[in-house]
């Protein structure tokens, strides 16, 4: 076990089965030390980025507030539960474990109604999953991001037990959190909700999670149960999950149809059109988040995330130099984030611009901001992110 692992309860851990093969990277990662993002060693320092203003301020998690990481301070492979980013659009409902119920309703052969214990009594699975908010990006220096070890049960099993009926199209996940929304000048009480197509919902890696890094799912992260859709932006991971509903129509709620909707220009069969899409699977993305120096030796570190497709490489470019391969943490799994590290040898004093790009095994290369389609909304900010610093 690596030093930066949280100590796991062994006996419990051995009981947990891996949900699906963790999947390996296509990258040969020989001789990479397991500990890629250590806390600063004695004499080591963080080199400040000149693109981060002095006023940029990261506060600890607080009730009902968005919380983001100071990505320069990422030192562990698993993000601490207390520091994992937080987004909640309708507040943070308090749910009592003993009275908690999860209902499965709609176009199913058997409507189901589970207590928390009923869910825990099913076959338990565990997966490493990292994700970011669909609204993450350069303005927060990528702070809406985290990686954790999630424990729970298979969503597919539950759906199979319910028996999805012929003609069903979508599965809607309702949270317990509600808010009054003004829609066409009318005030209506709405629950947070997201939907998946039947095919997307039946992916074997999807989970209902009730543990995070070996602890019961924390209150802020959806206690007692949340959905976890590996490879997707965070919005799909409905917290404080109350109901799973199967229907034969498209779910049109705010977080599918209005918010978390990207507007971009696309070529549609030869015609340039403005296209809206719901934020779904994560785009191929990497970013540099920290640079360290020890005795004149500089190291550039960052992360990559995508939809789970194996990676070919992560590369770093310094100023107008060539792209150079970085080392990817070999402990990465299919849906975890991939931390990378690059030894910046012969760094010269002065101003520099450094940038990373990730390539997957299908040859998809992370685009520059300029190469991406023209986009109006800030959702899905996955272009290359050049960082500046002065040595
Ligand atoms: N019930 C509920 N689930 C939710 C949300 C919410 O507001 N309510 N926010 C979503 C969004 S936008 C994100 S990015 C992730 C964040 O999960 P985290 O707060 O555990 O990091 O939760 C998702 N699940
Ligand atoms: Mo989000």
Your description of this structure?
There is one protein chain. This protein has 391 residues and is mainly beta. The protein contains 5 helices and 22 strands. The strands form 5 sheets. Strands 1, 5, 6, 9, 10 and 11 form a 6-stranded mixed sheet that branches. Strands 2-15-16-20-19 form a 5-stranded antiparallel sheet, with no helix packed on it. A hairpin with a 2-residue loop joins β9 and β10. The longest helix is centred in the middle third of the chain and has 8 residues. The chain is globular and about 65 Å long. The two termini are 36 Å apart. The N terminus is likely disordered. The structure holds the ligand Nc1nc2c(c(=O)[nH]1)N[C@H]1C(S)=C(S)[C@@H](COP(=O)(O)O)O[C@H]1N2 and molybdenum atom. The ligand Nc1nc2c(c(=O)[nH]1)N[C@H]1C(S)=C(S)[C@@H](COP(=O)(O)O)O[C@H]1N2 binds next to β7.
* Oligomeric state as shown: single chain
Q: Rough shape?
A: globular
Roughly how many Å is the radius of gyration?
A: 22 Å
Specify the number of helices: 5
Overall number of strands:
22
Fraction of residues in β-strands? 35-45%
Q: State the end-to-end distance.
A: 36 Å
- Percentage of residues in helical conformation: under 10%
- Structural class per helix/strand content? mainly beta
The unique ligands bound to this protein are:
the ligand Nc1nc2c(c(=O)[nH]1)N[C@H]1C(S)=C(S)[C@@H](COP(=O)(O)O)O[C@H]1N2, molybdenum atom
Let me know the average pLDDT.
91
Query: Which spans of ≥5 residues are poorly predicted at pLDDT below 50?
Result: 1-34
Largest sheet: 6 strands, mixed
Succession of helices and strands? HEEEEHEEHEEHEEEEHEEEEEEEEEE
């Amino acid at each position: 076990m690596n030093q930066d692992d949280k100590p796991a309860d062994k006996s419990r851990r051995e009981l947990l089965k891996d949900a699906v093969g963790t999947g390996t990277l296509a990258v040969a990662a020989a001789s990479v030390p397991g500990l890629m993002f250590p806390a600063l060693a004695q004499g080591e320092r963080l080199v400040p980025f000149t693109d981060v203003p002095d006023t940029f301020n990261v506060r600890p998690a607080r009730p009902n507030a968005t919380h983001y990481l100071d990505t320069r301070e990422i030192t562990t492979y698993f993000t601490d539960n207390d520091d994992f980013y937080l987004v909640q659009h309708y507040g943070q409902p308090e749910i009592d474990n003993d009275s908690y119920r999860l209902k499965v309703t709609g176009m199913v052969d058997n409507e189901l109604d589970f207590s928390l214990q009923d869910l825990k009594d099913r076959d338990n699975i565990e997966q490493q999953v990292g994700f970011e908010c669909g609204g993450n990006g350069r303005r927060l220096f990528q702070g809406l991001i985290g990686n954790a070890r999630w424990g729970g049960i298979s969503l597919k099993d539950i759906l199979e037990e319910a028996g999805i009926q012929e003609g069903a199209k979508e599965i809607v996940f309702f949270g317990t959190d509600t808010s009054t929304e003004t829609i066409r000048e009318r005030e209506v009480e709405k629950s947070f909700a997201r939907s998946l197509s039947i095919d997307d919902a039946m992916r074997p890696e999807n989970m209902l999670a009730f543990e995070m890094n070996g602890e019961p799912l924390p209150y802020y992260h959806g206690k007692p149960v949340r959905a976890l859709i590996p490879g997707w932006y965070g919005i799909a991971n409905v917290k404080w999950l109350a109901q799973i509903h199967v229907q034969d129509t498209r779910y049109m709620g705010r977080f599918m149809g209005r918010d978390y909707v990207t507007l971009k220009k696309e070529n549609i069969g030869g015609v340039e059109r403005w296209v809206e899409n719901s934020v779904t699977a994560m785009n191929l993305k990497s970013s540099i988040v920290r640079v360290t120096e020890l005795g004149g030796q500089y190291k550039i570190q960052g992360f990559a995330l995508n939809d789970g497709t194996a990676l070919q490489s992560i590369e770093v470019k310094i100023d107008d130099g060539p792209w150079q391969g970085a080392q990817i943490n070999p402990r990465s799994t299919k849906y975890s984030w991939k931390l990378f590290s690059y030894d910046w040898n012969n760094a010269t004093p002065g101003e520099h611009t450094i940038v990373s790009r990730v390539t997957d095994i299908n040859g998809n290369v992370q685009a520059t901001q300029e190469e991406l389609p023209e986009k109006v909304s800030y959702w899905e900010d996955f272009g290359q992110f050049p960082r500046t610093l002065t040595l």
